[in-house]
Amino acid sequence: MLFERPDEAEAGLVTSAEDEVIRRLEAELVAKAIQELPDVQRRVLIMRDVLGYPGRSVAGALGLSNAAMKSQLHRARNRLRLSLGGTTGPIEGRHDPGTTGAWPV
């Protein structure tokens, strides 16, 4: 038998060939979308979100102020989200300043 316990397969310890192909295709789509970002946005996104460097380190390495680094990161994330078919609308449960002013419950 392949598993010592039957619940190991249910726990997701083994992926099917189909799951592996889907994972690779998604990774290729994300890599292509990142490559298409403007240079500064791509560098900020990779250093911050992929490599995990602290924001101040990223800003310093790229010669940006901390505020400019945050702005470029925000723009990069939004552009990436849009290119992958997402939206840039408000996240559910967050306040949208363009609404009547009521906070979501």
From TrEMBL:
Record has DNA-binding as a keyword: yes
SUPFAM superfamilies in the cross-refs: Sigma3 and sigma4 domains of RNA polymerase sigma factors
Pfam families: Sigma70_r4_2
CDD domains associated with the record: Sigma70_r4
Keywords for the protein's UniProt record, in alphabetical order: DNA-binding, Sigma factor, Transcription, Transcription regulation
Region (Disordered): 84-105
Residues annotated as domain RNA polymerase sigma factor 70 region 4 type: 29-80
Nucleus listed as a keyword: no
Database matches in PANTHER family: RNA POLYMERASE ECF-TYPE SIGMA FACTO, RNA POLYMERASE SIGMA FACTOR HI_1459-RELATED
Record family assignment: Belongs to the sigma-70 factor family. ECF subfamily.
Full protein name: RNA polymerase sigma factor
